[in-house]
Predict the structure.
Amino acid sequence: MKNRFMACVLAMAWWQTGLAEFKTALPGYHYQFPRDYFDHPDYQTEWWYYTGNITGRDGRHFGFELTFFRQGVSRDGLKTSVWDLRDIYMAHFALSDLDGGTFYHVERVNRAGPGIAGIDANRRRIWNGNWSSEWNGEIQELRAFDEHFSISLVLHPQKPPVIHGESGVSQKAEGPGQASHYFSFTRLATEGGVTVDGKTLEVSGLSWMDHEFFTHQLAPDQAGWDWRDGTADAYSAGTYVDPQGRSRHLGARDFAFLPQADSWTSPVSSAKYPVAWTIAIPELGLQLNATTRLKSQEVSCGDSKLVPTYWEGAITIEGHRGEVGLKGVGYLEMTGYDRPVRFGPVALNR
């Protein structure tokens, strides 16, 4: 599950609708771009997930996250009013001021209504209020505004979209349909502006975009892909993308992703997060260490028993491939450290 916000809305939506109204993600799906950049209303759940590491001209470092979610509620053809609830639209926006030591975040929930939120393939736009992703070909322009922070960024793909998994699906559990259709833009050159407390900075850097759509993912008895007990789920998987954009599927036995001793304990949730990790892909000779400039990148739900607390933020990467040294940036999500829920992925840019 991507975050606490999504978990809450999914719980509400499952009470209201039957999954039989929606398609499941099955092998053999044929991706078509640009069609698949936009919405798939036949599937119940869908998201567009942007994360990035950007630097101001003055050397100030930031991480950002802007995510859009669509959750199907009903496909009743008799519901024709703009106010009928067919889908719930959620969005999350966060900014990590890595040098200033401040983490900003805000969420919102809307229905489509008369243009309040939605996905429009003809206009090539995904939006929730005044937060949006607008596409010009494969170039994506992001805008999001809050009282204390905002972004206006243009993202230029440096590699083609990468499809995750095998045979058109990213399998999450045993059985047909326990999967998603899932692709990413893994290297997006990014430029634009960041505003923090009224001051606007010109920035540039690298971003990543995930797009995933499905109806089922994890099996009912599956906890997710969380290494806290020392074991990884059998359906854990990854994708290696080389500098030319060629991709390679990685199964659970092909890599290791292990926490190190460095940790941070949240003063809000009391969750203890490992904030340093080792990533190894032996067959490729890759050995990487992930750390963060800002340990306090937690989104806490307080005393809620339904909505999970999670850590999601910018990381830095150092390591080597064979004899060649490597440095990079990325984003890491960790859920389930205040109580068991589901996992989060790591996205790396070299």
